[in-house]
Write a structure and sequence with these properties.
The complex is a heterodimer of chains A (about 270) and B (about 280). Chain A is mainly alpha-helical and about 270 residues long. Chain A contains 11 helices and no strands. Chain B starts with 6 loop residues before the first helix and ends in a 7-residue tail after the last helix. Chain B has a single domain, classed as MetI-like fold (Orthogonal Bundle), CATH 1.10.3720.10. Chain B has 13 helices and no strands. Chain B has about 280 residues and is an all-alpha fold. The chains are: A mainly alpha (about 270), B mainly alpha (about 280). Chains A and B meet through helix 1, helix 3, helix 4, helix 5 and helix 6 of A and helix 1, helix 2, helix 5, helix 6 and helix 7 of B.
Chain lengths: ~270, ~280
């Protein structure tokens, strides 16, 4: 009996440590951003001053809007290219399909942000592709970094729904390709699309590496402002970090919610069939 | 009866996208790496520089050591946490693994900020260490500081992989081997390791490839003080010592290093696979 209690206690302590390892670095920016002073071990006071600064100072507010705009656009592009691609590659049997699937898996590993950045700074500086320094280039860069994540999620969704049977059933009822997509396939893979979108959105909001390489003079995203403020304005840095941490956590909660909903939905259809 | 399959039509958007934003820039990188920065003439000087100049050789060595150390820490830590996670009840495991998937989307600068507050010169832990325990402060801005910081990405990444690998490890397989008279070491070599190896190697491939190219957090913490290959590329591609051909050559070297590492790991994995080419 005694030994079990000890083992149980040790397990709980270990679990707390394992969770703290992740939670502590996430909480630090949040606590810092709501405190008036944190010079010693414990932070002091409560304030929202640093957040107000972001909303009132044009530079920061503009940065927030720019980041949101870039992230939403990158998500839109990735949806547009990945949903058809995942549909097609899921259908391709044999070598071509398998080859493409593993290619998309390896792609982000051998084409990391530093290489994407090096490519982007020199590939788009002369007509007809003179996009250097434009916000559009940042959107394309974020879409490039994000699409493997979108693709993986959407492909997984297509793989779980037995798309061929569904499509054939719909086709036999007279639905054309567009109707099959609109009324049968998209509603079935929407959880995958949403999960991928949240992931790409969160990655784009926090992206610093490539963005800083291709940044123009006319715009700044939140991470670029964070990089500057890490050096000279730690208070603003904490508020920007707080916003980015909140974005990651919210995106993540959204994904968890989607996956539990889908899990529950699957159980229901299974029950109905039996 | 086989009509033209409409699947290929659906691949048009992604083909255009990949062509424009992956293959075209990559081609430019490769072509520019063979030109001179000032004259534009064809040359292999940039590659010669990469392997003869002390700063690039140093950064190459640093990158290999740094990525190796990060991968080792990530592999050991992630395997340990993954093993613990696989022994937990499904509910607790779900909560733990949810937390461990959070760092994936977190900005490298936010991680840098958090670690400055926790472990920087006047960081919370450092104050506690030096004031109450009399232990010298931890230097976040050193190589091991960077390894500790990047572990915040690598250990969770490896944990997620290893947790599912351990969950897939079929205990009856081990028992069967023991019943057939296998000794403990034989069970490890012939049963456990071959089952764990593919997932483990897939995990460290992702960590190693990521760490060979990582620079965001390092740039935020130590600026250009720690010479990594990725930081050399960054400084030539976007900062004052602008030299795109040299950056391109270093980028090609980096890609080659990543590809060779991945192929090597893949080769090892195939040797370890049951019934693989190894035996």
């Amino acid at each position: 009996m005694r030994k079990e209690v000890v083992v149980d206690l040790v397990q709980k302590v270990v679990l707390v440590f394992l969770i703290l390892y992740i939670v502590l670095p996430l909480l630090v920016p949040l606590i810092f951003s709501f405190s008036t002073l944190w010079m010693d071990i414990v932070p002091e006071g409560f304030t929202v001053r640093w957040y107000l600064k972001i909303f009132h100072r044009h530079k920061y507010y503009q940065g927030l809007i720019t980041s949101l705009l870039v992230a939403v656009s990158a998500v839109a592009i990735d949806v547009f290219i990945c949903v058809p691609a995942a549909y097609a590659i899921n259908r391709l049997r044999g070598r071509a399909g398998g080859l493409l699937r593993s290619a998309f898996k390896i792609f982000p590993l051998i084409f990391p942000p530093i290489v994407v950045g090096t490519g982007f700074v020199q590939a788009f500086n002369r007509p007809p592709l003179a996009w250097s320094g434009s916000l559009m280039l940042a959107v394309f860069a974020h879409a490039t970094l994000g699409f493997p994540f979108m693709f993986r999620n959407v492909l997984a969704a297509f793989q779980t729904i037995d798309e061929r049977t569904l499509s054939e059933a719909a086709a036999s009822l007279g639905a054309n390709l567009w109707q099959r997509f609109r009324y049968v396939l998209i509603p079935n893979v929407i959880p995958g699309i949403l999960a991928g979108s949240l992931l790409v959105f969160a990655i784009s909001m926090g992206e610093f590496e490539v963005t800083s390489m291709i940044a123009g003079f006319g715009w700044r995203t939140m991470p670029l402002l964070l990089y500057r403020s890490l050096i000279d304005d730690i208070r603003t840095a904490s508020a920007i970090s707080g916003i980015l941490v909140a974005t990651s956590i919210l995106a993540f909660l959204g994904m968890t919610l989607i996956s539990t909903r889908v899990g529950a939905g699957k159980l229901r259809t299974k029950g109905a069939r039996e | 009866m086989r009509r033209f399959s409409h699947e290929w039509f659906f691949l048009i958007p992604i083909t255009v996208f990949l062509g424009l934003f992956v293959f075209y820039p990559l081609t430019r990188v490769v072509l520019r790496s063979f030109t001179d920065n000032f004259t534009g003439h064809c040359t292999v000087q940039n590659y010669l520089n990469a392997f003869t100049q002390a700063r690039y050789l140093g950064s190459l060595k640093n990158t290999l050591w740094f990525a190796g150390a990060c991968t080792l820490v990530g592999a050991v830590g992630g395997t340990f946490v993954g093993l613990l996670a696989s022994r937990m009840s499904p509910k607790v495991r779900g909560v733990l693994l949810s937390f461990y998937s959070l760092p994936m989307t977190l900005s490298s600068l936010v991680v840098a900020f958090a670690f400055i507050v926790l472990l920087g010169r006047n960081g919370v832990f450092n104050i506690i260490l030096s004031r109450y325990l009399g232990i010298p402060k931890f230097d976040l801005y050193s190589w091991h500081g960077l390894v500790v910081t990047y572990s915040f990405y690598n250990i969770p990444l490896m944990t997620l992989t290893m947790a599912s690998v351990f969950l897939n490890l079929d205990r009856s397989l081990i028992e069967a081997a023991r019943n057939l008279g296998a000794k403990a070491w034989q069970v490890w070599i012939y049963v456990i390791i071959p089952v764990l190896a593919p997932g483990f190697i897939a995990g460290i491939s992702i960590v190693l490839a990521g760490m060979l190219a990582a620079f965001g957090t390092a740039l935020a913490l130590t600026g250009m003080a720690k010479s990594l290959l990725s930081l050399q590329i960054y400084s030539h591609a976007s900062e004052s010592n602008y030299n795109i051909p040299q950056a391109s050559a270093l980028a090609v070297v980096l890609i080659v290093i990543i590809v060779v590492s991945l192929l090597t790991l893949n080769w090892i994995e195939r040797r370890l696979r049951p019934g693989g080419e190894g035996r």
